[in-house]
Each structure stands twice: as C-alpha cells, then as structure tokens.
Amino acid sequence: HRLDEIGDILWDAFRTILSSESMDSLAYKLFREALKPERNLKKDELLNFLKSKFDYHERIVKEVVKNYFIEEKMSDITLRRKSLILSQKVYQYILNTYGNKSELTLMCFEDILTLRIFIDSEHESELSTCTYNSIISTFDLYRKANVSYIPTQLNLIKQATSLEIIRPFFDSFLPTIFG
C-alpha cells in the first residue's frame, strides 16, 4: 500500500525530529492525543498505526485511559460528564484488540457500567438520544463479548434495577465465583 509507505516515511522523519524523546514518553503523548475524548474517533486506523509502532502499546493505552478516567472523575457520577468518557469507537477498539479479560477492557467496562446504571435510575431524560444509544450499545457490545463483572463493581450493581444489567451478573459472574 502506498499509504503505508508514506506513513512509514513520515514516522521515520517524526522519530528523527524527536530523537531525544524516550519511546515511552513519545508513545504516551501520541496515544493520549489519539484517544482524546473530544476527538470522537470514527475509524481505528490511527490506533492500529500507533499500535504497530510500539511493542508495549497495551500498557501505554491503559495508562492513558486511566488518566483520562481520573481527570473526568469517572467514579463519581455526580461530578463526571454524563456520557462515555472515550469515544464509542475507542471502547470497541479496546475490546477487539485486547480481549474481554484484559485489565484495560475491564477498566473500560466499569465506565460503561457506571453510565448504564445511571441511565437505568430514571436519569434517561437528562441525556440526548445519541448519548443514550451510545451507552446502551456499548454496554451491549461488552456484555455480548462476555466481559466479566468484577467484585469491586458490586456496589454499582446494587443500584441497578434493569434485568439487562442484573441478569448477566447472575448468569455469568456468580457461577464463576461459586462454580
């Protein structure tokens, strides 16, 4: 592909210009820019390109995502934004790239679950239709991929009233705990 060749030429030039920068620092900056919540990615070519340039991409992506979640006060629904912190495409990319058992995917699922429970608790009218649908479809995507609930999410799950949220907890999480 001609586009890949051009990308490689630009990458080499970029690395030459930033030769004093450590690879960790460079990877962090590039992934942070690519994953910016306001970017709202529609395609994953940029993420795949960056992934191809760094062997330890999952560690870097996890660090970037974790920092975005901290900055957005993910764990406090009263303070945080009432939409997915990252773009829907990023959540999908993380699930597809790193699998349903990776720490990064589980961390993302907590954000999704927090919002899914929030809209389940009669807050649906506070959201635009687009935001609401984005949360629902991303939650459904993660559930269909059998992303597990984790014990630290029990307090969240106690707040749920929808069977769509509670049923997978009983169908898949509890049997793995109690055999």
From TrEMBL:
Specify the domain of life of the species encoding this protein: Eukaryota
This protein is called 8524_t:CDS:1
What species is this protein from?
Funneliformis mosseae
